[in-house]
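Memo to structure team: turn this sequence into structure tokens by end of day. - J.P.
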Amino acid sequence: MAHLDARGTRTVLIETFLQQIQGVDPDELDSTWLGLKLTPEPKSEFQERLYRLVNEFRSAAHPDGDTYSFFSTLHPDHNRRRPAETCPPQKFARTSASPGPAPVAPRRSLGA
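Reply from structure team:
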């Protein structure tokens, strides 16, 4: 297998994610985007808590349960420079009519 650099690995992950959601009913696709403004300490805490949460649920997997996939990416947002209060959580669902995410009404808040 060829070695992939970090960019290549990210590209493979994103392409795999897009392949996996192909044909998924938009009502079953639960995606969230959230703009944040964090200093290094809260950013580190956010990352650690997400990591712990994902591993907690991975450990609790049940052999008779339904199969789900989870994809998450935390990245610097070079497109937004406004306060977090003006970047509320947004829900997205992929539809067959659009090649990318289309906004849908929020079902729940991610908290303040």
